[in-house]
Each structure stands twice: as structure tokens, then as C-alpha cells.
């Protein structure tokens, strides 16, 4: 039998077993002391500060400052100074590492990527008050010392050329010496480069453009200025705030400028030249589209930049709504009259013409006495819904989001249901509150030519620069075919014979929008009205290739007389 342990032996065993537990407790105590010392909260605050900066959360950064620092700099001024620093550096991203330091200071390694100056890798050094970070100017950018600020010397690459669809240059050369080898007609699309009238904002500075730097001021030069400018280069510097050291400063980073690739467009130079020459400097615009793909082939004048009432070209929309809702068929019959009631008043035909017959004949002769009351039958909801499918109340689908924001084109409009204010009938004939551009009306003609499917209207072949808009089914193919029959009748036997061309059958719609009295009177003492003249259509009618719209502001005559011939000439040039 084994002898029981003595008391002293049992105590020794207990001590031996307790040693590991004591060691663990001691380590835990030491770690707790280390983690609980004043240095760790400071390092954590510095890391949070950098992490918030990486997200652009200046408010969270400000909350990490000591009370004394927050009294010294207001939060709005704090945010403004950081925004200026980010723009000056052309910063695109920032990441921070693990902080080191002691009770009074911390150092966080930081990496900043910039658009113009490459990558900056440098620590940020923090000091602390009793309750947070002691803010100072050196915290505005990694690598700055106290009493230093950021400065830069930028160098821009040669501006990229703008190419036509066939690869020829429409615009090329340095920013302030752009040339247009295919002629000045291309400027209506390419736009111009010049010195900005307004001071560069932070967005421009962030892209590497210094105040006064030449920039696109219209057209594609404006819409895709950043793309055409390429990547700027130069030197990012830390310079003394008070001009010490001769103001020379230190280099923080350098980058080489890199030119962009040529910008490829959808423009056909022959059609562009035709559109500009046929518009002949008149106030107005011409837009020409690929009838199937929707791509812009040519634009002249105010093709997308000015809104005007579209007049009777709007009857393409009204007829679509009538056919789609069953409010009319091609065989619907209407009385021959000079006027008819709509909107609580009598709506007259142009020149007080006696007008009527079936829907095709009424469309061909542009009978207001038919289409204003028909708009009332269609109703506000169906009228607006159809118009919006065609592109009313929507941003033109030409550029990507950034390009659209830069150009800020006007948005064609039609009232929402409940907002017509007794103008539904006149809206159905393109008057009232309806406003459009040649680009939109050409797009409506393109939709009909394409079997009722509207396509976006990009100006470039580069996917990243194209609009995000998708094709829209506006009407059935049957309705589009019926509309085509009606539009052919306009040219063969209606108001638009001047659009006819020998190369193909044109389908179209004339329009004349009354703008008000010009102040003059005719031989009978009647007031002479200022008018806009319109024509929209496509050709060939059986196998469409091109869709067109022409607008003449304050024209000398109606759309069938002065706009239709221009449309025909441009279509002829393309066919």
C-alpha cells in the first residue's frame, strides 16, 4: 500500500501546479497595463483619423481633434482645407497602416495615389492634447512638416484628336491651336477649346488643371474634356507657408504626363458637311441619325442645345398614342372643317384651310382640327406616357453621365398628367408647353423607322463614354408601319413634297410652330406671326437608313416650304 503524502508534500504540489496560472495572469496583467497606457488610445485615434480620411469622412476626422483644436478651426474651414489639399494633390485614393508611437506622439504610414504625380508614400506624425489630436497644418498631407503647405507644377500632355467614323481627324493639335482638317463644319460637333471664363473649381484642380488652363468650352471638347486632356504630370511639392527657404520647397512626388488616345466618334464627315452647309448659318439645327442603330451621323447648329415648340411634327407622337390606344385607325373619318373645339376653345387649321378625311389624309395635310380633338380623346396619361417613351422629360442620350453633366443639355418637356392646364389639345399639335430639339424629333423618326423601337443616340463609339440608356419599345411594329404609311403620304400628297429626293422615297412630317406676333402686319392688316419651321423623317421608307430633323427658328415660311428641302438635301447626301 502506498504511503499517503505528508502535509508539506501536498503544499509543494499545489505550488508547482499554480506556477503556470500565475505566469498567465502575470502576462495578462502586463498586456493590460500596456493596452491601458495613454499611448494606445492616441495611436488608435491616429489610425481612425487616417481611416476616416480614406473614406472622405472629414466630419469623423474632425471629431478626433482635441477640444482646443476644434475651438481653433471651425468644422467647415477644416473640411474646406482638406478638400483643397486633396484637389491640389490630385489624390485618387489614400490608405494607412498601423500606428507607432508613445504617449504624446504617433506615426501612421500613409500611401496616397494621385492622378498627376504618381504615388506618395510618407508617414503622418500626430501629437495630442489631453482629449484628442492636436491639429496642425502638417496633417493636411503626408510628408508635410510644420509650417509647410502643398504646391505643384503641372505639365499637360498634347490634347488628343477627335476622329470621324472613318478615322479621319475632325479636330487635332495642341489645346490653344486646334485645327479642323475636314473643315469648320466639324466644329458644330467637336466644339471648341479656350480659356475658361470662370476660375477653376476644386473639381478642375483635382483633375490636374491649374487656373487658366485651356479647356473644352463646347461640344465634344467640353463633354469629354478630361478624356481628351490625357493624364497630367508634374511635381507635387511641400513649400514654406511664410515663403522661407526662398519659397523653393521640397519635392514630394513627380509624374510624367501621358497623352490620351484619339476620341472616336460616330460622325460621317460628308453628312456633317451637308448638314452645316444646308443649314447655311440660319438660326436653328439639323440632326441626322442612323435609322437602325440610333447613332448620330451629323449635327448642325442648335441640334440639341435649344428647345422650341415642335409644331405639327408632334403629330407623330399623337398618332402613335391614338393608334396604340385604339382611339383611331387608319380608316377613321373626320369632317372637313377649318376649325374644331379643344381645350375649351376653337383650334384652327393653318391658313384656315378646310381639312379632314381619314387619318392618313388628315395627317398628310396636318389637320389641327383633327389632331387637337384627338389629343383630348387620347387623354393626358396616354399622351404623356407615349411622349416620355419617345424621350420627352428625359436627358438626351448622347453622352455618359459625366459628359452630360459637363454639357448640361436642355431636357425636352411635355406636361405631366394633371399639369396640362387646358392645353392638352394644343400640346397634341406641338404647341402649348411642349418643347423639343431637332435631336429628339430625329430620334422619334428613327423609332418609327426602326419598327417602333427607340435607340440611344451616342456620339462616340467608346462604350465607357456612351449613355447608359437602353433601347425602348415605344410602339408595336404594326403601329410603326402604319405611321410610315402616313409619313409617306405627307411627302407624296401632303404638306412635305419639298422633301422628296430622287434616290429614295422619303417618309416625313412637317411642322410650323407659332411663337406669337412679330409686330408686323400683312396686306390685309392681319398680324404676322413669328414661326419655327420643322421637318422630321427618314429614308428610304421601305428600308430606312437615315433619320433626320430640321428646325428653323423664326423662319421666313412654314416647315413644308423651308425645312423640308433642307431635310431632303441632307438625306440625299447620305443616300
Summarize the structure.
This protein is of the alpha+beta class and about 575 residues long. A hairpin with a 2-residue loop joins strand 16 and strand 17 (about 345-350). The relative contact order is 0.09.
Structure in words:
This protein is α+β, with helices and mostly antiparallel strands. The protein has 3 domains: 39-112 and 122-143, NTF2-like, domain 1 (Nuclear Transport Factor 2, Chain: A, Roll); 162-264, Penicillin-binding protein 2a (Domain 2) (Alpha-Beta Complex); 269-574, DD-peptidase/beta-lactamase superfamily (Beta-lactamase), CATH 3.40.710.10. The chain contains 19 helices and 23 strands. Strands 14-13-23-22-21 form a 5-stranded antiparallel beta sheet, with helices on both faces. Strands 1, 2, 3 and 4 form a 4-stranded antiparallel beta sheet that branches. Strands 5-10-11 form a 3-stranded antiparallel beta sheet, with helices on one face. A hairpin with a 4-residue loop joins strand 3 (105-114) and strand 4 (119-127). Helix 10 (269-279) packs antiparallel against helix 19 and helix 11 (315-325) packs across helix 14 (380-390). The chain is elongated.
